[in-house]
User: Which sequence fits this backbone?
């Protein structure tokens, strides 16, 4: 142990008036002394300072650690770890919880945390292991061994939250020995992290929104207009799949994240639109997605279809929402003109290339008002009769097709109406491909 560490350790023990447990003494120097744990570091420091026969972990000791109030001693005692294990197991069994990885979180007295920080300032230690980190690691290692599940710091299935605040209060008021520390006051709560399922959906009929659409009049509370359902439409792409998945996963709620959306009167065909379904608080995580897809599609038959289901990471729900300039969409539109149009006149539409499009009036209430530049990549037309034709158009993601056809009172330039010199209206629209490829 170097001289600087020895000096700071002496100062720490003096500030504590000798009342400091080996756990707290050792963790203050966790970056300076090599040992298997903080308690061993504390023993090494005492040995170097020639302080003998002073160990608060002994049952005969009536002294209270100046920093942790003996909390670290209690938490590291085998019988208390066993007690926490039992409380965790009881909670898991009650919830019938399925998980493979976990993380420990803890809550302790605010006064202890603040006092710990003040002592760091007094002995001029900028970085030392916190009490919470010591507790979380100690309990985590014990549970990992006994639950046969692994600790995962990045993406745990569940978090076991151990609330020790009442335990500390009892110790402060009673100053009891380890046998009488009122451990029943320890609370255990389980945070169940969501699962994310990625896939693609097809919408085979018109009149179904992508997500739940609250009633405009009652804002979802239920009224006569919505037949007291709280919804504008009784079904959605989100609800049709969530109904089955929530039941299978025993989840609490769901949230649907789509790669854009089509209008309610537009079909989504082709290979489908990418989405991520978030299931909150699932008690069952290891779902058979092949079998799940079959159940979902049977439930939604003739309305929607879901493909390529796979588990994915949380970050994916944000990624699919970003419309990259490289993405494209292919649409099939049935267009009706106010007057007759010829095949030769339709050839004018081949000049559609870079489109300047101000936010359409119909979505201006929920989209920022700005002008977007979008590219038409490919276009073909087929005359249906003297006043209507079919248009297949491949465009950069984010171009509003209905307004490309109508012109939207000159907010979209150029437009089909402009080039034909005829008022043109989109009668039917299908999305036939959504891609992330060029």
Assistant:
């Amino acid at each position: 142990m170097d001289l600087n560490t020895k000096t700071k350790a002496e100062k720490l023990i003096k500030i504590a008036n000798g009342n400091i447990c080996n756990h707290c003494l050792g963790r203050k120097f966790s970056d300076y002394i090599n040992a298997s744990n903080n308690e061993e570091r504390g023993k090494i420091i005492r040995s170097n300072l020639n302080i003998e026969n002073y160990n608060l972990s002994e049952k005969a000791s009536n002294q209270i650690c100046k920093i942790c109030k003996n909390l670290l001693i209690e938490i590291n005692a085998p019988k208390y770890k066993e007690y926490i294990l039992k409380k965790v197991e009881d909670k898991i069994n009650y919830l019938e919880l399925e998980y493979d990885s976990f993380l420990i979180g803890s809550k302790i007295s605010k006064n202890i945390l603040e006092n710990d920080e003040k002592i760091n300032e007094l002995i001029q230690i900028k970085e030392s292991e916190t009490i919470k980190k010591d507790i979380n690691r100690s309990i985590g290692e014990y549970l990992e061994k006994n639950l046969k599940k692994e600790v995962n710091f990045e993406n745990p299935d569940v978090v076991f939250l151990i609330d020790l605040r009442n335990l500390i209060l009892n110790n402060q008021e009673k100053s009891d020995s380890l046998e009488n520390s009122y451990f029943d006051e320890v609370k255990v709560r389980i945070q169940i992290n969501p699962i994310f399922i990625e896939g693609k959906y097809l919408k085979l009929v018109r009149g179904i929104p992508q997500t739940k659409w609250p009633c405009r009049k009652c804002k979802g509370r239920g009224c006569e207009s919505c037949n007291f359902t709280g919804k504008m439409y009784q079904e959605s792409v989100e609800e049709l799949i969530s109904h089955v998945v929530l039941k299978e996963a025993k989840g609490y709620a769901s949230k649907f994240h789509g790669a854009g959306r089509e209008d309610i009167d537009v079909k989504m065909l082709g290979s489908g639109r990418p989405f991520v379904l978030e299931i909150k608080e699932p008690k069952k995580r290891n779902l058979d997605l092949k079998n799940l897809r079959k159940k979902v599609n049977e439930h939604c038959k003739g309305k929607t279809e879901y493909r390529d289901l796979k588990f994915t990471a949380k970050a994916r729900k944000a990624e699919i929402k970003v419309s990259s300039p490289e993405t494209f969409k292919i649409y099939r539109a049935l267009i009706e003109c106010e007057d007759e149009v010829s095949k030769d006149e339709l050839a004018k539409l081949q000049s559609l290339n870079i489109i300047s499009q101000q936010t359409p009036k119909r979505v201006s209430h929920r989209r920022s008002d700005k002008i977007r530049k979008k590219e038409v990549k490919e276009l073909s037309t087929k005359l249906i009769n003297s006043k209507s034709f079919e248009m297949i158009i491949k465009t950069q993601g984010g171009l509003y097709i209905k307004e490309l056809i109508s012109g939207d009172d000159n907010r979209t330039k150029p437009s089909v109406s402009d080039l034909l010199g005829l008022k043109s209206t989109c009668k039917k629209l299908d999305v036939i491909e959504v891609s992330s490829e060029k």
In short: The longest strand covers residues 371-385. The two ends are 63 Å apart (CA to CA). The chain has three domains: 3-192, 195-319, 328-435.
